[in-house]
Amino acid sequence: MPPSPDDGAAHAVYLDANATEPLRPSAAAAMLEAAGLTGNPSSVHAQGRRARALLEEARAVVARRLDADLLNCVFTSGGTEANVLALHGFAPGRRVLVGRTEHDAVRMGVPEGAALEWLEVDAFGQVRLDLLEETLARPHALPALVCLMLANNETGVLHPMAEVARLCARYGAHLHGDAVQAVGRMDVALHAGGFGSLACSGHKLGGPKGAGALLLAGPAPRALSPLFVGGGQEQGRRGGTQALPAIAGMARALEEALDTQPHHAPLRDALERAACAAGAVVCGAGAPRLANTSCLALPGLRAQGQLMRLDLEGFCVSAGSACSSGKVASSHVLEAMGLEELAGQAIRVSLPWSVRAEDVERFTATYVRLAAGRTGGGAISVAGGLV
Amino acid sequence: MRVLVAMSGGVDSSVVAARLLEEGHEVVGATLQLYDSRAPAKKGACCAGQDIRDARAVADRLGFPHYVIDAEQRFTSSVIERFADAYAQGETPVPCVACNQGVKFTDLLGLAREIGAQAMATGHYVRRIEGPQGAELHRPVDAERDQSWFLFATTREQLEFLRFPLGDMPDKAAVRREAERFGLVVAGKPDSQDLCFVTDGSYVDLVERMHPEMAGPGEIVDRQGRVVGQHEGVMRFTVGQSKRLGNAARLEGERQMVVGVEPARRRVIIGPRAQASVQELLVRDVNWLVDAPPEGLACRVQMRAREIPRPAHVVPTPDGARVLLEEPAMPAPGQACVFYQGSRILGGGFIRRAEPQGDQAPARAEGEKTHG
């Protein structure tokens, strides 16, 4: 029996952009070009110089487009490393305040022994500014490091970052922003946004997997304790030879993501209207959200079964916190929003840059059928934040 | 048709998936994650054990979708905790029945229906035979691997939906040959042993961790309450057992055996082997796979995982059934009492504790650790 290479995946409708975006052809071209260069960017010879030139070109793009200084753009292997590098560098000597709904990269990345405090969110999934201020105002021997994501990966909900930044400035806190889901989907600016540091990831913009960046505030090169020293690359802040093809692909994807405007909102709104009419609730609907993300809960129907059904019908979506084993657990994000049972009944639909209207329409029709066929459930009382 | 195959990562369920695929069915694989199979790890970390990886490798090789189902919490509450609680009540539980009944044939089967499957298949060694009144449950061809006793609680509705393709296999070697024919990496994988969720130490350690009040040494007493010896922990003793009694194994020339366990007092009660005699017992949570006549029926009952069934008469009662044995035996509270007619399972239930009467202490039987 010959193994089938993709179990039909080639025909699948891909609506899981927040897991990873399809590779942009322009990014693939940039990767291919970079992969043709033999040199190591750290080498002194001609081939090394060519590689270095391409690397610095990519750095200039990423720094400029995200409002950082050229000297403070540290390339990493991706979003997780960028977040962990920031935590590793800025947590010592600070108390660490982490939002309840942060990604595991941050939640699990807080160094052991750090003074960790959780920041609660409201029913919409937005950080409670009153509690944040209370925490920051509390006299403490250590200054604060505040870690919040600009846009939530499961719900697309945006924290009120302008207010957060103002509070952090007032109380002398370092604000680290996890911009992995935000970059390319909304305006992100390091200095103008009041961030001390920002993490981003290439493959969430339509670049390749394997590259990310940590941007540090300030005009002069900012020192940062590296996770691994290696040969002192990235000005001693990230050892190891840079993954030039991935980095070049990320830079090209970033430009294209920022220069083109996908019209996600009308597609998303139509999907949500149909889903709600069929009995679904949209998690975090009352808050500002990314235009590409819908977190849809069907009372009485477990997320696992929904995912499998949709997958078998050729639709790629996900539930909030599928871990690397592939099992679907209840979502910590939705639990933090007080959604209790619904936390295990929600799937995430996230539209990629390449989405077509008919993809969303086909998905909507299937989803409505799935919702109509469910049994049980009935009236489940839920906290706010739903429509 | 679309069939959900419950895949454990072992050779049996892998062969089931491969055969169904070969027969032209749309196979969907699912593996339950029941417990964390690794050493304690950082909270929130993922925990795919080798079995899950094996199941996935088989699915990838054969080219059908495979899913990992998180059943950890439900397994803990419905199987492991109930297992430990039963010991604390002086019973000897059969956790495999609880698992088949709950996590597998209720939850996973429900999921199979949710995804539009028309059947669910497992690698159990048992036969499902289409009879005049619907599906019947029978012992498998290979008596060595008979798992029917562990499946008595399967309801008729569940049985209609289930398929057991290995029930006709002559022996395990044939299953392994099938696995080799399909080129499955798990062809040579050893059979699982004992209780799957006891990953380190023995079940005794696990129960003692959950019920520390039962841990520790205690007294061995005779039916009159005279202390005749010491033991290292009540969980190691079950009704009918003669091992671990030390000098008390033989008293006044008579071979002794455990006739009861009192976990609360950490006491093991013994009596002469020759006096073993229970001829009537009550079973609870009875599942009937036939329409039981009110006057009862003659059949054979099997009260342990491995024993020759005994002739008996079973009469339904409002809360279970009454079993009248032809010859006296030592039934073990908590164990299954399964009713057979030939190879067919008619029904079954769990053996109730006898009410203490006179010097009769509550009894508990030898633990059957055969996995099912």
Automatic annotation (TrEMBL), chain A:
<keyword id="KW-0032">Aminotransferase</keyword>
<comment type="similarity">
    <text>Belongs to the class-V pyridoxal-phosphate-dependent aminotransferase family. NifS/IscS subfamily.</text>
</comment>
<dbReference type="InterPro" id="IPR015422">
    <property type="entry name" value="PyrdxlP-dep_Trfase_small"/>
</dbReference>
<keyword id="KW-0663">Pyridoxal phosphate</keyword>
<dbReference type="GO" id="GO:0008483">
    <property type="term" value="F:transaminase activity"/>
</dbReference>
<dbReference type="InterPro" id="IPR015421">
    <property type="entry name" value="PyrdxlP-dep_Trfase_major"/>
</dbReference>
<keyword id="KW-0479">Metal-binding</keyword>
<dbReference type="InterPro" id="IPR016454">
    <property type="entry name" value="Cysteine_dSase"/>
</dbReference>
<dbReference type="InterPro" id="IPR015424">
    <property type="entry name" value="PyrdxlP-dep_Trfase"/>
</dbReference>
<dbReference type="InterPro" id="IPR000192">
    <property type="entry name" value="Aminotrans_V_dom"/>
</dbReference>
<keyword id="KW-0808">Transferase</keyword>
<feature type="domain" description="Aminotransferase class V">
    <location>
        <begin position="13"/>
        <end position="363"/>
    </location>
</feature>
<protein>
    <recommendedName>
        <fullName>Cysteine desulfurase</fullName>
    </recommendedName>
</protein>
<comment type="function">
    <text>Catalyzes the removal of elemental sulfur atoms from cysteine to produce alanine. Seems to participate in the biosynthesis of the nitrogenase metalloclusters by providing the inorganic sulfur required for the Fe-S core formation.</text>
</comment>
<keyword id="KW-0408">Iron</keyword>
<dbReference type="Pfam" id="PF00266">
    <property type="entry name" value="Aminotran_5"/>
</dbReference>
<keyword id="KW-0411">Iron-sulfur</keyword>
Automatic annotation (TrEMBL), chain B:
<comment type="function">
    <text>Catalyzes the 2-thiolation of uridine at the wobble position (U34) of tRNA, leading to the formation of s(2)U34.</text>
</comment>
<dbReference type="InterPro" id="IPR023382">
    <property type="entry name" value="MnmA-like_central_sf"/>
</dbReference>
<feature type="binding site">
    <location>
        <position position="123"/>
    </location>
    <ligand>
        <name>ATP</name>
    </ligand>
</feature>
<comment type="similarity">
    <text>Belongs to the MnmA/TRMU family.</text>
</comment>
<feature type="domain" description="tRNA-specific 2-thiouridylase MnmA-like C-terminal">
    <location>
        <begin position="279"/>
        <end position="351"/>
    </location>
</feature>
<keyword id="KW-0820">tRNA-binding</keyword>
<keyword id="KW-0808">Transferase</keyword>
<dbReference type="Pfam" id="PF03054">
    <property type="entry name" value="tRNA_Me_trans"/>
</dbReference>
<feature type="active site" description="Nucleophile">
    <location>
        <position position="99"/>
    </location>
</feature>
<dbReference type="InterPro" id="IPR014729">
    <property type="entry name" value="Rossmann-like_a/b/a_fold"/>
</dbReference>
<keyword id="KW-0067">ATP-binding</keyword>
<keyword id="KW-0819">tRNA processing</keyword>
<dbReference type="InterPro" id="IPR004506">
    <property type="entry name" value="MnmA-like"/>
</dbReference>
<keyword id="KW-0963">Cytoplasm</keyword>
<feature type="binding site">
    <location>
        <position position="32"/>
    </location>
    <ligand>
        <name>ATP</name>
    </ligand>
</feature>
<keyword id="KW-0694">RNA-binding</keyword>
<keyword id="KW-0547">Nucleotide-binding</keyword>
<dbReference type="Pfam" id="PF20259">
    <property type="entry name" value="tRNA_Me_trans_M"/>
</dbReference>
<feature type="active site" description="Cysteine persulfide intermediate">
    <location>
        <position position="196"/>
    </location>
</feature>
<dbReference type="InterPro" id="IPR046885">
    <property type="entry name" value="MnmA-like_C"/>
</dbReference>
<feature type="site" description="Interaction with tRNA">
    <location>
        <position position="335"/>
    </location>
</feature>
<feature type="region of interest" description="Interaction with tRNA">
    <location>
        <begin position="145"/>
        <end position="147"/>
    </location>
</feature>
